[in-house]
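Figure-free illustration: sequence to structure, shown twice.
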Amino acid sequence: IVVGADQVDKTVAMVNETNRGAVYVIRGGAHLDADQIVDLADFGTGAFPDALDGHVAKVEPPAGSTDYHLGATCQVGDLDGDGKGEVIAAAALNRSSAGLGGGSAGGGAPQGHVFIAWDELFPSSAWAAGYTIALAGSPEVTRIRGSVSNPANQEFGEELLAGLDYDGDGSNDLFLGDLAGDGGNGSLSGVGHVIYNVVELKGEDVLVADLISSPPPGVGHTLILGPVPIAIGADTAVHADYDGDGLGDLVFCNPKDNPQSRTSAGTAHVIYGEVGGWPSLIDLAPADLPTPAAVRIVEIQGAEGAGFPGSGDTLCYSASGGDIDDDGVPDLLINEMEGDGFMPDGDDPGTELDPAPDVGNLLLINGAALLDRVLLDVDGNGAAEPLTDGLLILRFLFGFTGNALTQGAIGDGATRTGPEIEEYLARAGAALDADGDDTLQALTDGILVLRFLFGFNGSVLVTGALDPDATRTAPADVAAFLDRLMP
């Protein structure tokens, strides 16, 4: 269990550092199997429960951290592939509810900082009583600092996700959100940062601006821009493998977005993981959305804007997920923080329901229905075959529709025909970009798919079928990419 305590005070070198924050790490085990109250204020004193000594650690910011609010957001995820979780904590606070009771509602390190305490700091042996880790000057600590401009970070790390591989390189990646950042779409539009292969930053103190402009060898970065001013993009994010291809998919939420002029209705963009990673920039502004050939995105739009009759749905201010219906596909649970509902009619109860503005709702979105994965089995008969599925893909990429697309190319036992096949292929997007040039073309991607389904390999697979801008050129890499799409 990782618990953030962002308003912890401490005197350091005779200076009282208020709201410096801390993170407590409570190791799981039989010591938790008890009916007890654990007061973390007693940590490091004789009043702390004996049963928990050796199983609790305190993570503190470096000296000079007044108003850092370390732990305002914290997360656990395995970033180095050893099966053990790293502790990730942000020094960035922007949460109005934190001010209830007289606490601070905002603060943090300048532009926001994110610290990673690598698992070597948490050995499997018993920890010393009062075990405390300082996040400074250690090869087992990484510090990533927000950017002053391009993008202009304000609360870098206010949202954190870790532990999934978005780009298929076998190394888990890190998502860092800033709801108040501005990457060019206006104040409070929000920005998100995806850092690939973050293990290469172990022990480093880096600026995210440098990761954008000149990342170290082996490290990659994608910047995601919230769509409009005040959208507070990345205020919430959640991830899972929604399409079952083995890659992590990211749900990037913009609670105050204005889809189709619905003020504050909110949106959630499901960004599917891609082999090789996403492009360096994903701009979610409606006029600048990437093409499906570059990035596969599903946009979920809030239903009601301000004035119908409430304040606007504010979709996805909070989100979670899991396989709720046990069908093997993760589902989405997102809220409408100010969604409208109903209440009993007070004057004539039992006859009708009256509108209740801004009461808030929870939406459960079935992952299988919404986020169906695109495979090379285009006609849906359970097999991917060159003279049916391969031909359908090739014709589609040539621009054929209707009978010209499907005639003589649908296999026995097909479950999709006609318009269903067109719709299925229309949302394939980057899933069919076999050579990785961010463009779908019949004479490159279509030919590669057809040859692959015929069983070609080696140079015979790729010769004469790669675009000059291809980034996936080795026959083995093309084959591995397409093999992921086999039923």
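We now fold a second protein in the same way, so the two outputs can be compared directly.
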Amino acid sequence: MKRQLFIVIIIIGLTLLLARVLVSMKPEPEKVAIEKKQVIVDVMEVRSSDLTLTIKAQGVVEAKNKTTLISEVSGRIDHVASNFLEGELVKKGELLIKVSDSDYQLQIQRAEASIISVQSALAQERNLARIAKQEFEWRERKNLSPAAKDAALRKPQIRAALANEEAARLEIKNARNQLNKTSIRAPYQGVVLDKTIEKGQFVSPGTPLGSIFSIKQANVNLRIPQEKLKFLNVPSPGSQKRYSAVEIYTDPSSTATQWQGVLVRSKGIVDSKTHFVNVIAEVNDPYNLRSNRQEPLRVGTFVYADIQGKTLKNVIKLPNIHIQMGRYVWIVNDQSELVRREVSIAYSDEKYSYISSGLSDGDKVSKTVLTGYLPGTKIVINNVERAIDSGLAPVSDTVTNGVTSDTQGAL
């Protein structure tokens, strides 16, 4: 038993000795220096300025003035103008529809005959009154009452004859007015919207004949988000405020065909579902009657618009892509370290945000998307874009062995 234990101890000892020899014979691993990776970014050097906003909107062209023509008399339609058709141009005062006027001509003739009759009766009463006055003065009737005296002088008969004459004159005036109403004329220069009658049709007072709209001016009904209304100069009723300028175009990829307008009012109602507000822009001469444009701005056209908004004071214009979580930006400080800065946004659109606080002139905002980095990380600037007014002028920065050198780029 003792002998077996002794053999085990010798084997274990030899094993440990062999292991130690093998470890001592293992070559030491070569030491390699770990290269610290540099974070290289492009930055934008920002500068504040006063910027006038442009609010983009979409909408539809509408007629500013639209009139439904309605018959005021009864009769058969004798004439319909050849250009009284949908889409045709009509001039102010142009005869569009003529209702048969034969009955109204007869009314005028009867009224003229009636006034001749009452004028003759009036002349006769005046002659009788003159004779009665002479007789009254000859007889010297001094004890009569005022009423009896008036009766003796035929004053009631004269008043009745004068009233009949006035009634006859009013009858003539009414007959002539009715005759004029048989001619339906265009109230202004415009375009026919629709026609609801034909020649030979019988009409009565209140019968719709058609409708036209004015082409002197057009309204453009534009929809904008409710929160952007405060950035527009929308005049209130009776206000003398300056109107916001509006540029209107039909193709969003090109503004070659363009119309100028002004923002005149807001409808004052917010759509409870979409939270949009409708504002009205006014355009002069939409059908190019006094201009050289080839393309008219037709009623019903879907359009795009750039509305001149209010001016923001001392703001920094920054592309939205450089803003994280809607309120943070990465900047590089003078020690070439990353700093996370919270900013306040006065206004934003689909491309840019306008920073009112949180950044200062000269701050270098990272244009490179940074994920997983912490504040204080050392940074190497590769390229700088310096702001000039509201634009950006590129400055080429080259990196050589971790050191940057600036060269002013062409504007």
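Summary for the second example: Residues 388-411 have pLDDT under 50 and may be disordered.
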